[in-house]
């Protein structure tokens, strides 16, 4: 049975980590045109002199169900503990650019890939019909199989002829996923990572991946495939659960550890509903300096006591870098 999002009255208080996304709603069409003319395809950096910072926020209840029905007046936003005027608010159901990054290493044998395919079909059925998909498989290396397709069936078809083999270059695959999804046509961006273990064959380190993720506007949703077990995480190799949970946490996503096919279907469906029920809140920072330092953001609303058991997830902030070329020169990242 599908878990439907709940509608709550306004005046809810939320405290949590938030993420920045350089996006603008229709109400700011003239500003958006000016920003898009100046922004690069990789919108990791924030040219705050001319661009609005948009914070994408997910709110869920104790059961993990997405909460909708909040309004602009419910929210306050802070940058480095200084309140910022809210310039726009949107809860519109918009399409997303989504990367499907799935493990095809030796350990994914025994029907795990096909079970993931069945659950992914539920995700595609629940998702926005205009979503854009990037498909990346990985074993000893990462391979881009689909590049910006809007055909969910094409994604599923690529699972039909997959044969597990090789090692697990998980970091390389997720890094490639971030690069591709960041080039997507939609400002709402996410990666679903399907794997049963930890990395053992990547050229990139976890620290490199973490920094790239912090710079991006991509949320990671790991699905740990561990088979039937009362404690699914115990079936994942040593550091797998910690690292996959960490990717979710620093990106504003959420990790899932389904113990059976039914739980896996439920996890994929929840991700789809969550992406369709996110809030976007925008502001122009009052005292921006392009010094490359981390800017921490926090979102709160007016009555934190009334709904204290709600959960809020999204990124914690952004690096205040003047433009994308500065970031690439400083970090030596490849695009």
Note down, in words, how this protein is organized.
The structure is a single chain. The longest helix has 16 residues, at 261-276. The strands form four sheets. Strands 2, 6, 7, 15 and 17 form a five-stranded antiparallel β-sheet that branches. The protein is built from eight helices and 17 strands. The protein starts with 5 loop residues before the first strand and ends with a helix. By secondary structure, it is an alpha+beta fold. It folds into two domains: 6-91 and 278-331, no CATH class; 97-276, von Willebrand factor, type A domain (Rossmann fold, 3-Layer(aba) Sandwich), CATH 3.40.50.
Could you say which overall geometry the principal axes of the C-alpha atoms support? globular
Series of H and E elements: EEEHEEEEEEHEEHHEHEHHEEEEH
Measured as a percent range, the helix fraction is 25-40%
Q: How big a fraction of the residues is strand?
A: 15-25%
Task: Point out poorly predicted stretches.
Answer: 1-50, 227-236, 324-335
Please count the helical segments.
8
Count of the separate structural domains: 2
Gap between N and C termini: 42 Å
| Structural class category | alpha+beta
Q: State the CATH architecture of the largest domain.
A: 3-Layer(aba) Sandwich
What is the CATH topology classification name of the largest domain? Answer: Rossmann fold
Q: Biggest sheet, open or closed, and with what strands and sense?
A: 5 strands, antiparallel
Number of strands: 17
The CATH superfamily name of the largest domain is von Willebrand factor, type A domain
